[in-house]
Structure formats: structure tokens, C-alpha cells
Amino acid sequence: MSDTAAEGPLPSAGGHRGETPTLKTIARMTGLAVATVSRALADAPDLRADTKALVRKVADELGYVPNRAGLRLRTGRTQVIALAMSPEHDMMNNTARLISSLAGTLRETPYHLNVSYFFPGEDLLKPIRHIVETGLADAVIFNQTLPDDPRVAWLMERRFPFATHGRTRWADRHAWADFDNLAFGAIAVRRLARAGRRRIAVIAPPLDQNYAQDIVAGATLAAAEAGVEVRILPQLTSDAASAVVQERMAQVLPEGVDGVICASTNSAMATVAALESLGLRLGREIDLVAKEAIPFLSLFRREIIAIREDVGRAGAVLARAAMRAIREPGAPPLQDLETPQDDDQ
Amino acid sequence: MSDTAAEGPLPSAGGHRGETPTLKTIARMTGLAVATVSRALADAPDLRADTKALVRKVADELGYVPNRAGLRLRTGRTQVIALAMSPEHDMMNNTARLISSLAGTLRETPYHLNVSYFFPGEDLLKPIRHIVETGLADAVIFNQTLPDDPRVAWLMERRFPFATHGRTRWADRHAWADFDNLAFGAIAVRRLARAGRRRIAVIAPPLDQNYAQDIVAGATLAAAEAGVEVRILPQLTSDAASAVVQERMAQVLPEGVDGVICASTNSAMATVAALESLGLRLGREIDLVAKEAIPFLSLFRREIIAIREDVGRAGAVLARAAMRAIREPGAPPLQDLETPQDDDQ
DNA sequence: CTCGTTTCCTATAACGATTTAGGAGTAGAA
DNA sequence: TTCTACTCCTAAATCGTTATAGGAAACGAG
Fold first, then answer.
1. What residues of chain A, 226 to 265, have a C-beta less than 8 Å from chain B?
2. Where are the beta strands (DSSP E) in B145-250?
3. Which residues of B touch A69 (CB under 8 A)?
4. Whole-prediction pTM value?
5. Is the model's pLDDT at A8 over the cut of 80?
6. Residue B162: what are its φ and ψ, rounded to 5°?
7. What Å value separates CA A43 and C1' D7?
8. Which chain A residues touch B11 with a CB distance below 8 Å?
9. Inter-residue contact A94 to A83 (CB < 8 Å)
10. Which positions on strand D lie below 7 Å from a protein C-beta?
11. Which 8-state DSSP code applies to residue A98?
């Protein structure tokens, strides 16, 4: 009775006035049964309109919010969307942007955002399987898709709602948001060609990644058209230390490389460091095109040709795509391709 | 019966073999009552040791994991730790690092990480209050503390578990992880003084932030000792556009400023851009000390004097601090101060 | 043999929600 | 009047868990 206790169910405690309202509270206040209240809020067709109106009014006044545990226990729906990210690659800003726009989009919905990470070297499927099998979320979002992504295959087979940041070879059949890396690769090459560069090196992310393949494909195509040469330098680890980049660049420079394409702020910075310590000047002996999520690189070297990727847009799309996959499993999946503009000026 | 249905409770469905095991499953298999199984797993003192061993064995074999909804409904514990972040300031890398180390630390525990954001201009208390009042989490973690932080006061009064990234004036009474910005300010000034700089400008974050005040205090103290001068340039918005910084710098340079201190990668980059467009060279006419979470700045301008802050460490501490606040409300709060080293070489 | 004690387990009731089956009224038809 | 049909609501069961109160069996003491 005093303030010692605190055993048993804590959350609503019920009894004292002013506690968190539940269906039971509304039932008491309206004189209806709990079941009726529940059905009224669900807008059941066999209730009188004025009954439903009354219930809704009281619910609003009390600020009733359905208890998540009760709902989840009964229906199996968690109202959670899980984000399973890799901490690798471009920790810089993409990650934070993506998370914040996901959270921002979900904020006026009943969904919560749960963040977990899968770690390098670990089975890609493991965290996803865990989420699905223990019913931890209603949908999953993940990034760093592979062309033949096992997660996508597994989730499609099970018809579990999901959305990916990046496409796969089943892109027509699932929800995704992606940046048009093919276009990026092509634009990058064309910009360099227009600047008079003829031998272009692409510092590519690991080539098993879908987007890396797109960049390479786009660059290769455009190079053929523009009549310039392209060399692919796959980036073995994702942490592109500048020493590694420097070594690679030292190898290819004697071959006459005069343009470089980078896929991220990170690798662009490492590359600039490498180039400068090899005595090259941007805009003079060599040019650099890079993709970045935050207008950053041009702050540093205004000579860098930067192409923007709006990760915030991807986050907003992914959040809506996940909700749609949950609520309308049959509907065509939401998809969004962000295409960069070749707005040379 | 066929695959049409899917009404009613989804998660365990129970019936077909191989479904998610619950206490009931274990009870059936051992011939014990559900309550006994529950108590056995909780290691109740009035059960025979071999009974408990049996239950645990069967539970392990089945891979039993307590159902979160059931647990939450009954006990009120959510097994969720909520992170309420500001998307402002140093979106760069701090945020992503913090989230990933929180998630990484929580990963082998029963706790899940829920991410929500509070937005600029919004009442700081609002999201926190929402989390607490609707029982969305067992603990809250947030950043960007103010010296007199209303969230901290509110949570302490209610004895709700929390941990902060950054201290407050009640720092001795709650859990926190922080970087020693006082030491950073002092070290920064000493490094500049040792380099022969006499008039130092501090590009400070908004001065209502606790850490901004610490940096200023540390710089001021050390300046007095070293016999150099310090000027504070408070950064009005957090997005320190380089144009703004440039304007400020243009004002103070004629006064003989020859050293600059920046609190983040962001502002350091803006500052460098500003300085260079004003015709100054780092390491020549002027020196710059900056704090950063990722070894980044020295990649770009090796002349920048960079001091590292390990946000990953803060994340790990905050996760453990939150769990401790939940599990041992009486125990002294976990606190961690990361002190930068003045390792000039 | 009977009565307390101790040991070890179980039945029941909740937590808050939804779903199913059914029940009390009222109205209309024969 | 009596039966049927419809409208609108409710009782009960259930999801998985834990706390409380109590009960069966075994044992020792008188």
C-alpha cells in the first residue's frame, strides 16, 4: 500500500484515477462491453453509428492508445519495422541519414523502428531469419544487396514483408529504393571525357555488391560511346585505407590514367590523399568524380566533381514501402529509383 | 485448413509440430505444469534441483525463447531500450557510430534498440515523455544534453532508467558517457601555443549545449596559463555553412588570429574552406585543431591537428549503463569519461 | 493411528487485445 | 398470439507469461 510494493504488472496498474486508459476504461465509461469497444474502434459494420461515434469520442478524450503488448500477443503483429544494417561501407553519413529519415517517416505511424546490425563475415541470412522466426518485426529493411541476394530469396519464398536499399535480380518482384548507379557510372565517364580525360580508373566497391556492378557497367558503356578507356580497380576491403588506394594508383598512373571515379565520400577522400601525395593536382593532371550523400567534397576541393545521392529520399521510400508490404501483401511493391542528373555547368 | 486462412493469432499457431516453442510446449513435454516450467526457468528456490535441470534441458533443446509480448503484457517490461536522438549536429559520423555500437553491445542481450528522433524546435521533453508514459521502453538514451537538461530532471524525478551522451549539472546522480571537452579545449590551446600561436579563435557549437561550455572553459583556462588569447565565435546554427564561418573568420583575422579550434569534422571542413578562400595556408599562417570521431581530417590536410573521440566507446558504455539502470535501480549509475591525450609527437 | 510440518508442485487469475458464437430485443408476417 | 428475422450488443476463449494461494504426498512426532 505504501510505496514499497511495485510487484506484478506495472504498466497501467489500473485502479488509481489517471492511469493509462485501456479498452476496459472506455467500456466502464460508456457502459458498453470491452468487446464492443474494441469492435467500435475497428469500425465493425454491425454496430450502430452513434455507438461507434460515442466510443471514438471517449477514446479520444482519454487519449487512448492500444497497448502494444496486448495487440501483439493477440494478433501476432508487432508494429515494429526492423532495420538490419551493415556497419561497413560509408559509415560516413549514409547510415545516419537513412536511419533518421526512416525514423522520421515512421514517426506519425504506429510503427517503431528497431535497429540491428549484421557483422562482416557473418551469415547474411542469420539476423533476418532470427527476426522472422521469432516474430520480432512485421517487416524488415536491409541494405547492401547482392545480385543474387539470399535474404531476398528467403523472404520472398516465405512471403515476409521487406524492402531493400539496393536492387537485386528479382527487383521487379519486391520493394526497393535505389540510386541509379548505372547512370552515375555513365555520367561520371561522360563528365571526365568532356574534360578531356581519356583513361579513367574506377575505384569500385567490392564487386559482389549489386551497385558496384552497376557503376562498372555504366562506366563501361559510356566509355565505349565516348571513345575513352576504363580500368576497374576493385576495392578489396570496404575500408579503403588511403595507403591501399595509393598503391593501386601508383600502379596505374604510369599507364596514363588521368581521371578517377569514386563511389563514396570515403573513397574519394582516400583517393585525393593518395593522388596528392603522388604529386598530382586535381583539375590539372587529373580529375575526380565522386558520389556523395552530403554536399561535402566540394567544400574541400572545389575541383572534385560531385554527384549527389539523396539517402533521405531512400529512407522515406523504404519506410512507406515496408508499411505497404505489411498492409497490402498483394499490391505491387513500392519501388523508387533516384536518377542523378548530368547537370554540368 | 488449406492455405487460405491466416486469421487469428499468427505467431506460434501451435498445433503443427515444429512451431515456436512456448512454456506450454515444455510443460507438455516434461509433464509439468506451465507455472512450474516458468518458475523452473526463473530458478525458483522451492523447486527440486533435478526438476529445474530437466526443464532447462528441454528448453535448450527446443531453443525456447520467451515470447516478448507475453512477457511485456504480464510484467510491463518491454526489453526495449529507446534512443532518442537529435538529427542535428555532426550528422557526419557520430550518429552512425553511436547507433552501431549501441546495437552491437545490445546484440547478445535480450534488449532491442529502438530509434526515434526529436526534431529541432520541438519540445525536448515530448518524445521522452511519450516513451515513458506509454511504456514504450525500459530505458531511454539521449544526447545533446543541456547543463540544466529538462529531460534529465523529469526522468530523475520519475526514477525512470536512462543514460545520456553528455553530462549535466546532475552528472553525479545519473548514468552518462561523455568526452572530456574541458581537456580537449585545454589540449587544443596548448598545442596551438606550442606551435607558436598567440591568438586563438574557438568555433564553438551553440553555447547552450553542455559540451560547448566545457570546450570554452577548457580553452579559456589553458589560454590563461599559456599566456595566449582566446576568442569565442559561437556557431549560431548547427549547420555551420562555410559561408557563415568565412564571414566570421574574415572579421577576426585582421585582429591577428593565428589559430583555430573546431569541435567537429563538419566545422573543421567548413573552416578550412573558409581559411583557404581567404588565402591562408594551414601550418603556415594559421593552425587548426579539431575533434573528430573518425580519422578523417588528417587524410585531407595532414596539417590539421586532429584529436580523436571514440564514439564507439560511448555507445558501449551507454548500452551497459542503461541495462544497469534497469536491473539495479539502486546501484550507483555507470559513468564514463573519455579523456583525450595530449600526445604531441 | 492421527496430526502437524515440510517439500514440491499446480490451479487460477490476471495483464490488454480480438474473434467467435450466441443472446436479448424489436419488428414484421402469418 | 406465435413464429421468424433482423439489429445490435455481449460472454467467453485465447495469445504467453508470472504471482498468489493452495494442495497432494511424504515424513516425523505424539
1. 242
2. 162-165, 175-179, 199-204, 229-234
3. 69-70, 72-73, 78
4. 0.89
5. no
6. -160, 165
7. 16
8. 76, 135
9. no
10. 7-20
11. H
